[in-house]
Fold:
Amino acid sequence: MAFESLTEKLQNVFKRLRSKGLLTEADVKTALKEVKMALLEADVNFKVVKQFTKAVQERAVGQDVMTGLNPGQMVIKIVNEELVNMMGEPQELPIKPGNDMTIIMMAGLQGAGKTTTAAKLAGQLKSKGKRPLLVACDVYRPAAITQLQVNGQKQGVEVFTMGDRQSPVDIAKAAVEHAKNNQQNVVIIDTAGRLHIDENMMQELADIKAAVPVDSTVLVVDAMTGQDAVNVASTFSEKVGIDGVILTKLDGDTRGGAALSIKAVTGKPIYYVGMGEKLSDLEQFYPERMASRILGMGDVMSLIEKVEATVDKEKAQEMQKKFKKMDFDFNDYLTSLDQMNNMGGIGSILSMLPGVGHKAKELEGMIDEKAMNRTKSIILSMTPQERANPSILNLSRKNRIAKGAGVDIIEVNRLVKQFEQSKKMMKQMPGMMGGKGGMRGGGFKLPF
Structure:
């Protein structure tokens, strides 16, 4: 979970601050020493940490904070604001309007996830009405072209390739002409990576930029490499020139130092962050939302956007009606499980809820993912008639379902019992389902 250890340490510091009625200057300095250590342990750049704690201390020991009604809360507010300042203003990857062509060159080291990220970005732009073209210019890494073709096919985006015997510069030039001839308005060039920074790689990137009018050079860096990611960004910025960064594997980085350091060290914005292996797991980077996650305050806006992007509105409305009429069945249960999975699973959802923060992993551990998979297997072993009408499930049908799912009949009985109890419970709660005694604003809204 991103920032897990940092969030936990900051939460403990803030808990102690909140417990004090009044704060002395010594209290603030002690708290900031702990914050400083937490940030350094999270692999945040030393100079950035120094600037950050200095800025917080200058504001936190002011008269308004020390004599305020809730000084502890005021210090937390200042920390939040300075975290946002550290990460900069949210910036979108600049894409030209209308049919004007935008050329994006992806750069980075091997293993950072550049090829997958290029396909993720193409999918994002396609969903916004653009017509992207992916260009396979990595002619060195075995299967790099095939990887891009497979991911491009999944996204429904064309991949331009001339094999691995042409020079990357010639491929890039031909791809731009192809895009012009086929009314494609975003060209995403996937360049070759290396195991480490070398002059040949840098020269090849410079040659591509000289041959085609690149609008944005986007560096893809692996968040899990911490300060190395920041050093790579600095080197690329100096030698090739970059316009922004996409940070991958942030979901697996419990420290988060790269996300907090890159903007302050390089002056370049983070456009997107990769939060999973799926092609849909690319989120726009919002410093305010990220600061909120770090401080354990959740990220409701990103959760809402994720729901809107992954949940079928018509299905959700149809399910809402079914729940109001108590007419839901196992098909609806299966749909809700699939939609939760599309949103990144229960862990991803929990991490965005206010007040959960670093406890997300702990809570996720209390929810048996294997049991959820077994539930899905049981439902998939039912016939369409049995899913639509659970009341027909007699002993012989349950035995057949248990064998089909590879589970004991006890688990089938348990699922059927839970389903029936859920229906009974909801019948006793007409207010929550939008009845006369319902909540203000139209009743209970389902989380899927």
Q: What stands out?
A: The CA atoms of residues 6 and 38 lie 6 Å apart. The longest helix spans residues 409-427.
